[in-house]
Amino acid sequence: MIDDLYNKIGQILVISCPDDAVKIVTGIEIAEENDAAGYYFYYLDNKNNKKEFVVDSRATDDIFYTMLELKRYFLDNNLTNGKPIWAGCIVEIDIKNSKINFEFKYEPFIDEDEER
């Protein structure tokens, strides 16, 4: 179940990124009320150039609702060990090597200036 949610977010990002991307980095921060999210999206090309990209609203909606499912899964399965749930995460996808990593954040971490 949890791997399905991770994979769903990864698939949305890979489908949404430019063709020359070899690595994707995305920040996703869910509001405390679970009613909104902040994002940033960038990728590295094969020359290691960092470039921002825009994801359409359908994709961000899909990411948002999948993140809410992930939060619910963590809470329902006591994966927080009695501590507060994370506020969001940074997702890194190595497209070439088919690897995905989620780094969960417990404090707000997206500046409004970098939000897309």
Number of strands: 5
Number of domains: 1
Helix content: 25-40%
Query: In the CATH scheme, what's the topology name?
Result: Murine Class I Major Histocompatibility Complex, H2-DB, Chain A, domain 1
Shape: globular
Can you tell me the residue ranges where pLDDT is under 50 for at least 5 consecutive residues?
Answer: none
Q: Order of strands side by side in the largest beta sheet?
A: 3-2-1-4-5
N-to-C CA distance: 29 Å
Kindly report the average pLDDT value. 93
Rg calculated over all Cα atoms: 14 Å
Question: What proportion strand?
Answer: 25-35%
Label the CATH architecture. Answer: 2-Layer Sandwich
Give the SSE order as H and E letters: HEEEHEE
User: Given the helix and strand composition, which structural class is it?
Assistant: alpha+beta
CATH superfamily: BH3703-like domains
User: Can you summarize the main beta sheet?
Assistant: 5 strands, antiparallel
CATH class: Alpha Beta
Give the number of helices: 2
How does this model look, in words?
By secondary structure, this protein is of the alpha+beta class. It has a single domain, classed as BH3703-like domains (Murine Class I Major Histocompatibility Complex, H2-DB, Chain A, domain 1, 2-Layer Sandwich). Helices cover 30% and strands 31% of the residues. The chain is built from 2 helices and 5 strands. The chain has a 5-stranded antiparallel beta sheet. Strand 1 and strand 2 form a beta hairpin. Helix 1 runs antiparallel to helix 2. The longest helix has 20 residues. The chain is globular, with a radius of gyration of 14 Å. The mean pLDDT is 93.
